[in-house]
Amino acid sequence: MTTLIKFADQSPEAISQDTSGATISGTPEHTVWVHFKGADDSFRAGVWESTAGVFHGPQNDQIEYCYILEGEASIRTNDGKDVIVKAGDGFVMDNGLQPVWTVKEHVKKQWVIVSVPKA
């Protein structure tokens, strides 16, 4: 099927994500809205948000593009660099990145994830 999906025209179900295995500190709550899934699930797009906390967000077998809609976060990369992302910022997290997110209050992003074959 060939189609165009406009996020504003959809009302996908809000899905609460279990953060227990990823949480480093605090009690972050993650909610995701999946707006699109490809037929084989190798391409997905949607919206995600998090409340305050520190947590892992590994990019295993996937590449993710993000665009911050609201709020701010600090993302620590594999080399220990802290990158601040805030509303209006777009960025890519490459396969193999093992970021640690620090959210002081709230952050909301649009995301696109492409699965990559295991080496």
UniProtKB/TrEMBL annotation:
Residues 38-110 form the (S)-ureidoglycine aminohydrolase cupin domain. It comes from the Bacteria. InterPro entries: RmlC-like_jellyroll, RmlC_Cupin_sf, UGlyAH_Cupin_dom. Pfam families: Cupin_3 (PF05899). This is (S)-ureidoglycine aminohydrolase cupin domain-containing protein. It comes from Planktotalea frisia.
